[in-house]
């Protein structure tokens, strides 16, 4: 089954085990591909020797100082958008160093395809590798590489230099995978062509995330009484994810039987913790920090409602994970969130930056427990139908096989 099919995964910081948080969604995909017999070569942007982990072959950069890189860069210089050359020379050197090492792996192992995650930097590395090896290039767009949110300076395309590179990559790729209608439409707007753009929703492991999980241990760990309603948010503490608006919503809820659990870490965490103090809600807010991946499903399990207050979100895997666990989700009407939440069916869509509306929807769900439970069951049903990782992997393998059978080699 898929014997002989091989792919070079260009994904800089992807981890080597299910415990690693960096690009965990890429690892999950690579692991599922490997389980189905695809030979996966994950080429990372760090100095490391070849190794195998979870059926994935990991390779890295052999050495930082490589005399062949300058020749490689000289041959590639004309394919750079002119504006993109106005950068530090070390950036150009690094891109070509990474691409040259990836090309060597492909040549040595006669790999069939290049699959880059994110249009920049990985997609551009993949483009340079395609030039060198002639292998077909698939680019998966994930979010900050395609979408922008100027109010919080989110998105590489806010820079004219990187916007030009992303446009070049998307035009030169043989296939592009997007996870939501928002990213699908934006890619088409950039390249003006829909034939090679594929809408393949992100997926979750519906066994790992399921409604039968018991969250009572997690409640006990954090000292939360059984009768208390848990409102859970799991996002990085960065401007684009809108945690501030979640906290402001919490301050509007004058109830003693509700506690807010906020997972994740990031540059704004000290600000958010101080904001909770300033808003007078520190006693009913628990900042749990970075959550080990193995524990994440149990945080959903102990929750009554999950809130995703993002200002921009290419897909929002947290939404699918929570729905898979049978929880109603309140999410903002941005990016890929409306692909997953049907307003009033499995949760609620709210306007971004609107604490009052978030608070109103939380209160409604608390006061209508039967409806909240029904929404949770509906959410599970939607995930089983549309957002099962197995369905995503089948579509990706089919895309690989179609590219190769259509003469892209």
Q: What's the order of the H and E elements?
A: EHEEEHHEHEHEHEHEHEHEHEHEEHHH
CATH superfamily placement of the largest domain: Glycogen Phosphorylase B
What can be said about the biggest beta sheet? 8 strands, mixed
Strand tally is 14
Poorly predicted segments: none
Question: What tags apply to this protein structure?
Answer:
single chain; 409 residues; alpha/beta; Rossmann fold; 8-stranded mixed beta sheet; 14 helices; 14 strands
Descriptive report:
The protein has helices spanning 24-35, 68-76, 89-109, 119-133, 160-172, 181-191, 216-221, 243-252, 269-278, 296-302, 317-324, 355-367, 369-386, 389-405; strands at 6-10, 39-47, 51-53, 56-61, 113-117, 137-140, 175-178, 197-199, 229-234, 258-263, 285-289, 305-308, 329-332, 347-350. The mean pLDDT is 96. The chain is globular. With 409 residues, the chain is of the alpha/beta class. It folds into two domains: 6-203 and 389-405, Glycogen Phosphorylase B (Rossmann fold), CATH 3.40.50; 216-386, Rossmann fold (3-Layer(aba) Sandwich). It starts with 5 loop residues before the first strand and ends with a helix. Helix 2 packs across helix 3 (89-109), helix 3 (89-109) crosses helix 4 and helix 4 (119-133) packs across helix 5. Helix 4 links the parallel strand 5 and strand 6 (137-140). The strands form two sheets. The chain has an eight-stranded mixed sheet, with helices on both faces. The chain is built from 14 helices and 14 strands.
